[in-house]
Amino acid sequence: QAVVTQEPSLTVSPGGTVTLTCGSSTGAVTSGHYPYWFQQKPGQAPRTLIYDTSNKPPWTPARFSGSLLGGKAALTLSGAQPEDEAEYYCLLSYSGAPVVFGGGTKLTVL
Amino acid sequence: EVQLVESGGGLVQPGGSLRLSCAASGFSFSYYWMSWVRQAPGKGLEWVANINQDGSEKYYVDSVKGRFTISRDNAKNSLYLQMKTLRAEDTAIYYCARSARPDYWGQGTLVTVSS
Fold this sequence. Notes:
By secondary structure, chain A is mostly beta strands. Chain A is built from no helices and ten strands.
């Protein structure tokens, strides 16, 4: 089974910009992996932030964006707010196998 | 408004069984794949199983194959997860989610496997 990798932790200053990445043990991440991004705050269920690489549900703030960058899926937060402090998970889809979550990135806004 | 409400969690002894339910509302349940995702205490998300619209296709993570069964009742807008031969490592919050790649999530139900 493929392994999906994320940075264990990142820190961003309020108002700053940070990029979280999502890699695959099988090689470059492409749009065919349909990358998803989820945000989870302590004690809460996950919430979908980005689907199919760069698309946003209605509830996702404009400061979040998704892309492909250097063979990985990327989530960029521009203008970080204190309420963005959370755990972020990516998910990739593989042919012949359903889906695999990354290990998560703990984002600190400090 | 899409709503997913899980139930059926609780404390069970190793080797025991439990059946989780997920009541769906606010969308055409029979049109969507559905998934179960779990999260062990202090750990990350793990996909467990998913099922297609009519229940003819089912997929499982290797660690639960042969022990867990996903099913659905489209007439009742409900998703189920039958769990047997439970192990301590199955202890987790179990989330019901819409679609094979989750877009909406329930609040989860806690399953604790312990003697």
